[in-house]
Amino acid sequence: MKKKTLIKDALAIVSCDKKDTIYRDSDILIEGGRILRIGKDLEKSPEAEGAQCIEAKGKFLYPGLINTHHHFFQTFVRNLTSIDYPNMTVPDWIGKIYQTFKRVDADVIYYSSLTAMADLVKHGCTTAFDHQYCFPRSAGKNLIDRQMEAAAQIGIRFHAGRGANTLPQNQGSNVPEEMIETTDEFLEDCQRLIDIYHDPNPYSMRQIVVAPCQPINCSKETFTESLRLARDKGVFLHTHLGEGENEMMVDRWGTRSLAWCRELGFLGPDVWFAHGWELTPAEYRVMAESGTGLSHCPAPATLGGFPIIDMKAMQKAGMRVSLGCDGSATNDGSNLLDSLRMAYLMQSYHSKQRGGAVSAYEMLKIATVEGAAMMGREDIGSIEEGKGADLFLVDARSLELAGALHDPANLLARVAVTGPVWLTMVHGRVVYAEGRLTGIEEETVAQEAERVCDRVIRNA
To answer: What residue range is the signal peptide (predicted)?
Structure first.
């Protein structure tokens, strides 16, 4: 018999469905990891017989947040003033920080992933894409395998981006030789990971994305062969684009990054890029016409003093936009609620000049149902019958929220609800509740993570 859970008497359920439904004083009945019913007094229903009850009185319930761009391995280079991102261009920063990245090993990948995932689920994130492009030769090829192990322990839905840097320094790359892979070895490992881990079925807990790091540090062959493999295997594609590399691309190839990708065929509804603050209005239309998506990462744009993207103009052009934390080296945290708030404020600041702001609720949908769609997921992202039971709850009875409870849809970004949530559930399983992760012994893992960070990063 499938496990049943009844979330009872939620003060409000913000569904983020197509009708923007908000259920008041209602219940959710969950069976086998999916939402079975939404309504009032469901405990009286025969379907609820034997269900475990979670009392949600005084709580606001939301769909789980979807993080569409991150670099978990960077968690151990947070708060390092020796690598001061705001004072450098992105290419200069890459050249410097890779000297630290080349020391990363499998233990760093495992514990930094646990750290980032813990931060994410504590702040309402239930599905995360990680762009793991750090493969030092000394670290071996089982790094994403270690991430899969970490994801299973935390209980988060995990889309693993297998990245690579394949262009040597003598051909214009700024990546150390120890970090360079050949296109063939990159694709061979992508094939291996897809065969072992990729689950395309509804309610999948793990998927693989083919994700060459970025145009300036990869060969054309890497991109064309990535495209061939991904389309053959039915998996999605991802890369960095429009984050300061265009001048170098014009010098090297005589064209901007998006045009370069378009020429290679690296566009489409199965492709999404990260950042895009260099994109032009004409390029918005190219993105829209091809169905290519963009993950907006507000923290690194703000930290680096880069242009704030015009999300409203992108949406009007027909572009698909989602939200990401980005790596901790350019964010210093893995809190997508914080990124939600930051993105909302950034867009509001420019609203008068740009003809309309993105509302706090619209930003929530970008961070939930739009993020799910970006990665090809129709089974999660909103609170609807038949969808995966991915959600989080906020205690609305706390004093700091008094006077703001009339509008639960806009509350999170508008009122800066960015701290740890009351409960996070993924596929019907409680992974975090009332300050505690349920899948790991947090203090023990934190102590071991610090030892690994000392050994590999600090002492080096």
So the answer is: none
